[in-house]
Amino acid sequence: xxxxxxxxxxxxxxxxxxxxxxxxxxxxxxxxxxxxxxxxxxxxxxxxxxxxxxxxxxxxxxxxxxxxxxxxxxxxxxxxxxxxxxxxxxxxxxxxxxxxxxxxxxxxx
Amino acid sequence: xxxxxxxxxxxxxxxxxxxxxxxxxxxxxxxxxxxxxxxxxxxxxxxxxxxxxxxxxxxxxxxxxxxxxxxxxxxxxxxxxxxxxxxxxxxxxxxxxxxxxxxxxxxxxxxxxxxxxxxxxxxxxxxxxxxxxxxxxxxxxxxxxx
Lengths: 109, 146
Prior knowledge:
Structural class of chain B: alpha+beta
CATH architecture of chain A: 2-Layer Sandwich
Radius of gyration of chain B: 15 Å
Helix content of chain B: 25-40%
Number of domains of chain B: 1
Number of strands of chain A: 4
CATH architecture of chain B: 2-Layer Sandwich
Radius of gyration of chain A: 13 Å
Strand content of chain A: 25-35%
Distance between the termini of chain B: 25 Å
CATH class of chain B: Alpha Beta
Order of helices and strands of chain A: EEHEHEHH
Strand order of the largest sheet of chain A: 1-2-3-4
CATH topology of chain A: Transcription Regulator spoIIAA
Number of domains of chain A: 1
Largest sheet of chain A: 4 strands, mixed
Distance between the termini of chain A: 30 Å
Largest sheet of chain B: 5 strands, antiparallel
Shape of chain A: globular
Number of helices of chain A: 4
Number of strands of chain B: 5
Strand content of chain B: 25-35%
Oligomer: heterodimer
Strand order of the largest sheet of chain B: 1-2-3-5-4
């Protein structure tokens, strides 16, 4: 599981790569939570464009990071999720969370 | 109808084997020439079934997971994932969306994903003996150019 991070102003983007399943979710969660702790960004972008597979473990991962960002008064944005990943997240009703802004902007371009 | 091909696989309930199980199913079902989306559906459902064995059936131990895949001439694929773990006391409850005993960051949507990505799914479980998840999906047979 590969993670690259870039920060600009108040925005930190985490580029996720690999397969997001139960096996990889633990280490990935630890890495991203460390980024949140160290940088305390106002806005955290989780870039899913490098994720080649995701099952329901991704739902817990996104929900958990959403709560983490809420707890420090920041916001979370998810970008680059494939239609298949969105289908999995919709099963959890995640489309109702205000986390899809970047993706929506991409879609509108 | 008799299966035209079948594979059986036994592996231990280590989380590293979630990816292995997905790859094994992909490699075996590839002979039906499935579309990318169909294969991804199967991979996702298998991942959920195997993860359930690891997270729930063998929660505090390591046990064997048995995976059986049958392929039929008409494109039907049957996948069985079985464990000899703790079993599920109330299958109906366990299949309710968002219900989980898996702790924080488990969404409780594993069965929902399997139901959503496969054509049929059924669960048989006996407490103390184990659980069998049987899933079916029809792969659209594309015209072959021989």
